[in-house]
Amino acid sequence: MDYDRIADLPLTIESVASERLERETSSEFTRVTTEFSLSGPASGDGGTITGRGEDVTYETEDHDRLAETGLPDLTGDYTVGSFSERLAALDLFPGGEPDREVFRNYRRWGLESAALDLALRRAETDLGSVLDCSADPVRFVASTRLGEPPTTDRLEALRERVPDLEFKLDPTAAWDAGLVAAIEETVGTDAVRILDLKGHYEGTTVDSPADLELYKRVLEAFPDAVIEDPALTDETQPLFENSAVRSRISWDAPIHGLADIEALPWEPSWLNIKPSRFGSLESLCETIAYCEERDIRLYGGGQFELGVGREQIQLLASLCYPDGPNDVAPRAYNDPAVGNELPWSPLEPATDPLGFR
Predict the structure, then answer these.
(1) For 89-130, what is each residue's pLDDT tens digit?
(2) Planar angle of CA 301, 243, 189, nearest 5 degrees
(3) Model confidence, pTM
(4) Which end of the chain has fewer CB within 10 Å, C or N?
């Protein structure tokens, strides 16, 4: 992705609105996000157009405070690049410090993506056309936890609806040999595309400390799966000395830009791209370009987006890494109950695209 192709796109913001979204999820928590709407004049015969983006900050209180305080004044004439510079100079959490510093990136991404959507709509074009990239069908996986205690019930229910569905799973300490065997019997090892060990989260409900026996078990049982975010300790490090194993390792939570990639213990073979982690469009574009130059394989990551953010990560996958094991499944896959009409992979791109959606 070439940031220069989008940085000079003009936009005018005349009004800013936000909407608090809320929904129960399959991971047994209530997800709250905020969708931003930036509105301004259309080109040509006038009228008003709106660009949208989504703040995927995880703490409900941060969204509630935003609803109370609002954002700093963002109206004015910009380019996509100058709007990004404006955001970098502002405190986007005027109601108080966010629970985690990375949430500042999440909120900034929500506004930058809305600005890009507005600028593209004003120019009456779409992101693929500006980047000179084709939009291809997106292969996706269903990301799901298996409950406490873990069972294969949800895997069975999903496979009944979509027989060739592939998965991203989150192993936990409760994954014993019996459960691993049950997963193999239910969906087969090939269908498990990603195993997210979540070894780099701290202070969250999904923290998963290094577990040598668990790591050994899943590495052996799922020999072709991408292994995401292992915690490297004196105990676990020897498991990853082999180049064949290292070629399966992917990183997600530690990555917020190029400096984080360069600081990894070895050059990665895989990366999970969650745009909100990067904060700015410029950081996202330079990271994707860096990976393309080095043949680092990419796939999209989801964050239980409730609004336009889900469409935007699907679009990025379509343009940049359509064949990856993309964790960008349609929102229906995140519902607590498994629905009867689930979309099948791959997702077809829009036939008449406009903006950044």
Answers:
(1) 999 999 999 989 999 999 999 999 999 999 999 999 999 999
(2) 55
(3) 0.95
(4) N
Q: Do 349 and 137 meet the contact criterion of CB atoms below 8 Å apart?
A: yes
Domains of the chain: 4-126 (3.30.390.10), 131-334 (3.20.20.120)
Q: Can you tell me the distance from the alpha carbon of 150 to that of 154, in angstroms, rounded to the nearest whole number?
A: 10
- Please count the CA atoms within 13 angstroms of the CA of 142 that sit on its side-chain side: 29
Instruction: Please report where in the chains the tokens 């259309």 appear, as a residue.
Output: 42
CA–CA distance, 269 with 249 (Å, rounded to integer): 7
> At residue 69, what is the residue type?
T
Q: Encode 201-242 in three state secondary structure.
A: CCCCCCCCCCCHHHHHHHHHHCCCCEEECCCCCCCCHHHHCC
Q: Does residue 229 carry a pLDDT above 90?
A: yes
Helix (H, G, I), strand (E, B) or coil at 127: helix
- Secondary structure (DSSP) of 140-192: B-EEE--TTTT-SHHHHHHHHHSTT--EEE---TT--HHHHHHHHHHH-GGGE
Of 189, 214, 291, nearest in space to 250 by CA: 291
68's tokens: 């109370």
- 282 neighbors 84 (Cβ within 8 angstroms): yes
Answer whether 51's CB lies under 8 Å from 121's CB: yes
Dist CA 330 CA 310 (whole Å): 8
Amino acid of residue 300: G
Angular region, 47: left φ>0, alpha ψ -120 to 50, beta rest:
left
Query: Token digits for 54?
Result: 């989504």
Token duo for residue 51: 């660009």
Report the DSSP beta bridge partners of residue 50. Answer: 39
Compute the radius of gyration of the chain from its Cα atoms: 20
